Amino acid sequence: MGKGISTTAVHSGQDPDPSFGDVIPPIHLSSTFAQSSPGEHKGFDYSRAGNPTRARYETCLAALENGRYAFAFSSGLAAIDAIVRTLKPGDQVLCSDDVYGGTFRLFERILKNQQIEFRFADLTDHSQLEQNLGANTRYIWAETPTNPLLKVIDLAHLAKIARSRSIKLAVDNTFATPVFQKPLDLGADIVVHSVTKYLNGHSDVIGGAVMTNDEDLAEQLQFIQFAAGAVQAPFDCYLAHRGIKTLAIRMKCHQTSAMIVARHLEQHKGVERVLYPGLPSHPQHKLASTQMQGFSGMLSFYIKGDLQTAKTFLSSTRLFCLAESLGGVESLIEHPALMTHASLPAEMREKLGIQDTLIRLSVGIEDVEDLIEDLDQALEKANC
Ligand code: P1T
Fold it and tell me: Which residue, of 244, 261, 276, is where some domain finishes?
């Protein structure tokens, strides 16, 4: 098999089916599998434990991230939850301060009650990283680029610090995707994805995935997947596996258009500041240019004005759909403070810079001239 990511995406886990030679393997919807005598079967006994459609898809997921193991979960948050379930009471996680609001909510409102301590720090600042490591830190948890502020964190540095202290490094690679960033190659122990986003790419599946090369972690994750049961259903595995085939070409289009949109907004009189790792004005642009092979399709910006200006703008776009989520072929727009990051305490949002004028775009694969025209007419309506 070829080593390029497009080849992997199209072929991995997609050998023709042996029964009739289907080039697209059939979907195995069965919840259970016949046994010839107790414990004797053809490799699958019950679909929570394993399913042929899921197994093919997991083969592809692992290959995309250069991992040996992958596990498919029913959502990105279920995948994140499974990773933290490898910890025990008293253990600590040091997490990047800017993460998806739902990740913060899961950590602080559910897993914290199980006596797991979460610390949040700006991991772009290496002194904050060192200061916040404790004797019981078991995971460093990084989203990069972060959601929604697009901060870029130095994964090779984190991996070095983590390794020197026998801490595991977990990276949420949802925004970058393996097309633009491969955390395991940079020294991470675990990669997690909200498959709901770019991997599936068509806004019609909720899913999550965990990839690793660590045999011990893989054994624990497989057990948690089986025993806790938040597995991805076969039909959703099929859809996500199908979506992945076009991942590389979609990502190239997302990033080309996002760069054009970012440059356009940066010179617009109605825009205060644009956050996009591909812009030279981005504080970690240099790091992003070496750590990533592309800058992806997510960008945020501060609109000039106040909450009302932002609301008018958000209600005025026609192509950009006002909705949570990201990474689909269609462009989405949202207001982090009132939508995806509403679960963060107001002081934390303020401190981070998730203000009322912050707007996040997921730039889709439509014609970029149409996208710009849409943003311009909405900015005009908002009196910018
Ligand atoms: O929605 P779910 O599949 O459970 O994935 C959670 C998740 C995990 N990690 C990152 C970086 C994410 O962005 C998300 C989900 N994010 C959104 C729904 C959003 O609009 O930002």
Answer: 244
